[in-house]
User: Fold this.
Amino acid sequence: MKMVDLHRQYLGIRDEVERAMGEVIAQSAFIKGPAVGLFEQELAQWLKVRHCIACGNGTDALLLSLLAVGLQRGDEVIVPAFAFAAVAETVLLLGGVPVFADVDPRTFNIDPASVARLVSGRTRVIIPVHLFGLPCDMAALTAIAKEHGLKIIEDNAQSLGAVCRMPDGTSRYAGTVGEIGCTSFFPSKVLGCYGDGGAVFTDDDELAARIRALGSHGWFTKYDSRYVGLNSRLDTLQAAVLRVKLPRLGAWIAARRSVAARYTERMGGLPSVVTPAGAAYATHVYHQYTVRVPAECRDGLRAALAKEGIPSMVYYPGTLCEQPAYRDACVCDPAMRHAGTLPATVLSLPMDSELTDAEVERVADAVCRYFTDNEKRCHE
Ligand SMILES: *Cc1c(COP(=O)(O)O)cnc(C)c1O
Assistant:
């Protein structure tokens, strides 16, 4: 068993993928070939957003977004303390200051109350990270951003296809609520390609034009550099793979949800296991199925699963505030209570759209058995 079985998914789309890649190679339009523009249009349509600008990877998507909003040296950007490194490093690379907010331990997502505490005269941007497949509370964050004139750049690398329900009764796809949304097509993401890839979303024509130019050396027309940009493009080969996969995204998300529902049915009753929470304001796409268990038994559970050939992963083994590269250059919410408790208590179980019922039962059986055998020890 694997955490994410990419090969099994490939077998189901093999002929189409090989045909699409073969076409690109036959045309030899490796950079900015027709599949790139077509994929951008198709994904924008899927997400009901005006612009999709493909780029080299999800980290570049964040960097391009921060460049596009004109982040200046010393500007503060509020990001979650429990998340992937990209949100901190891109801010720091531009001379900005990451300000780490606490997270809600049930949803793992940035806590709007902490964000509100951290807004200062230097704050320019909030980057909510929609972690593990569940969007953040975008209504609450949008209200804070409006009140203080801040931009929202959503990190939607893990929640493509999830929906945010807004207080006015409308629904929007995660990544299309803030001024800008970012995603990654890293192979293990909900929509992954066969290498690196990413994209930026926005409804703002001017931002879209700037982001597109920034990803291409700041050019609006070739060799005419209007901004200090970078080279960040989605390969035509990757776009061709993504065009095969996009029509299946809805079905793959549905498959993830039924795996998650079965896991929760089997493990939700265990006194030592906290299964992933939903939220009234969003739908979940289960990029990860992450449980919380008492710190005393997390590594024991992980070892017991490994002994039965069941992989599991700790996302993430530390908070961003304690990383050696960031800790001297950042600000942390002094009232932080929860983010620091997660690295020792979280465990992500195998999750992808191809897991069989038998495999799901095998994982659930192994978790249940571990706690039957160790329940007392975990609570001492
Ligand atoms: C994967 C990921 C990224 C970065 O994406 P890359 O394509 O690997 O650069 C950024 N943020 C989050 C939350 C991610 O999960």
Q: What stands out?
A: DSSP finds eleven helices and twelve strands in the chain. The chain has a mean pLDDT of 96.
